[in-house]
UniProtKB/TrEMBL annotation:
Its cofactor is pyridoxal 5'-phosphate. Pathway: One-carbon metabolism; tetrahydrofolate interconversion. This is Serine hydroxymethyltransferase. The gene is SHM2. It comes from Ajellomyces capsulatus. Keywords: Methyltransferase, One-carbon metabolism, Pyridoxal phosphate, Transferase.
Length: 307
C-alpha cells in the first residue's frame, strides 16, 4: 500500500519510542528496572499483564466516542460499542451478577471521580453523607474534612459526618454509627475503606441505611479482586451501588466501575406497591455528560481483557 505522506511524516508515525524519544525511553527503562527490583505492597501498584498492556497501547486509543453503546455523538463506533458491551458483560459475570438486577458503567476514569459521580447522581448539593473517617481507615473521596478545612471536594458539595472505629478493637463502631445516623439522617451511607484490615458487616450497614432511608454505597476498590474470587464476602447482596477501581486486586488498567441496582427497590407491606430503582439513568448521566466527555476506549478495552 502507498500513502500520501512525506518521508518525515511516515518516520514520525512508525518509529519506536527508543528511536523517536530516547530521553523518555531511558526514564521508562529505569522505572521498569525499579519495579523489577522492588517488593511492592502498595494496593494501587499491582502488576498488570502483557495482554492488558497490548490493549492499552492499541489504536483503540484513537477513537472518540461520547455517549453510550447505541447512542453515540460520533460516527464509526460500532467496534467501540462492541468492546464496551463486552466489558460490561464481563464485569457483571466477574461478580456473579444478574444483568436483570444489576447494571454497570465502565467509563469512569478513576475511583474518586466515580464516587463523586455516584454522589451527584443520588444527592443534591448540601445533602448529607456519612463515610468512615480517613484517620480511621476511610478514604478522601468519602467526604474527609478537618475542623480547619474541607480536604475533599466531596465535603464542599455535600454535608459530611464521619463514623469511626472502636479504638480498643479496631473494628467499626456500628452502634455509635447507628445512633449518629438516626440523628444526622444521611441521604447516602458509604461503606468502604482504604486502610482497614477487617471485614465490613454489610448486613449491619444495610440495616443502618434502611433505618434512615439512605442509599448504601459500597466502595470495594481495595478488595474487589478478593470479592470476585469469593475469598471474602460480597457486598452486592446488600448494597444499592458499588464502586471499584480496576487496577488494584483486579490487576487491570487504571480506571473505575460503578455497579448499580435495577428492578424493585422495596415493597410497601400495607399496599404491596413496588418502588423501583431509578439509578441507571442518573448514574450514567452523571458520568456522561455530567462529569466526563469521551471515554478512554483503550482503557475500557484493557479492562475487558483483565476481566
Amino acid at each position: 500500500a502507498t500513502y500520501a505522506l512525506s518521508q518525515s511524516h511516515r518516520e514520525q508515525l512508525e518509529k519506536s519510542l527508543a528511536e523517536s524519544d530516547p530521553e523518555v525511553a531511558e526514564i521508562m527503562k529505569k522505572e521498569i528496572q525499579r519495579q523489577r527490583e522492588s517488593v511492592v505492597l502498595i494496593a494501587s501498584e499491582n502488576f498488570t499483564s502483557r495482554a492488558v498492556f497490548d490493549a492499552l497501547g492499541s489504536p483503540m486509543s484513537n477513537k472518540y466516542s461520547e455517549g453510550y453503546p447505541g447512542a453515540r455523538y460520533y460516527g464509526g463506533n460500532q467496534h467501540i460499542d462492541a468492546i464496551e458491551l463486552t466489558c460490561q458483560t464481563r464485569a457483571l459475570k466477574a461478580f456473579n451478577l444478574d444483568p436483570a438486577r444489576w447494571g454497570v458503567n465502565v467509563q469512569c476514569l478513576s475511583g474518586s471521580p466515580a464516587n463523586l459521580e455516584v454522589y451527584q447522581a443520588l444527592m443534591r448539593p448540601h445533602d448529607r453523607l456519612m463515610g468512615l473517617d480517613l484517620p480511621h481507615g476511610g478514604h478522601l473521596s468519602h467526604g474527609y474534612q478537618t475542623p480547619q478545612k474541607k480536604i475533599s471536594a466531596i465535603s464542599t458539595y455535600f454535608e459530611t459526618l464521619p463514623y469511626q472505629v472502636d479504638l480498643e478493637t479496631g473494628i467499626i463502631d456500628y452502634e455509635t454509627l447507628a445512633k449518629n445516623a438516626k440523628l444526622y439522617r444521611p441521604k447516602c451511607l458509604v461503606a468502604g475503606t482504604s486502610a482497614y484490615c477487617r471485614l465490613i458487616d454489610y448486613k449491619k450497614m444495610r440495616e443502618i441505611a434502611d433505618s434512615v432511608g439512605a442509599y448504601l454505597i459500597v466502595d470495594m476498590a481495595h478488595i474487589s479482586g478478593l470479592i470476585a474470587a469469593g475469598v471474602i464476602p460480597s457486598p452486592f447482596e446488600y448494597a444499592d451501588v458499588v464502586t471499584t477501581t480496576t487496577h488494584k486486586s483486579l490487576r487491570g488498567p487504571r480506571g473505575a466501575m460503578i455497579f448499580f441496582r435495577k428492578g424493585v427497590r422495596s415493597v410497601d407491606p400495607k399496599t404491596g406497591r413496588e418502588t423501583m430503582y431509578d439509578l441507571e439513568g442518573p448514574i450514567n448521566f452523571s458520568v456522561f455528560p455530567g462529569h466526563q466527555g469521551g471515554p478512554h476506549n483503550h482503557t475500557i478495552t484493557a479492562l475487558a481483557v483483565a476481566l
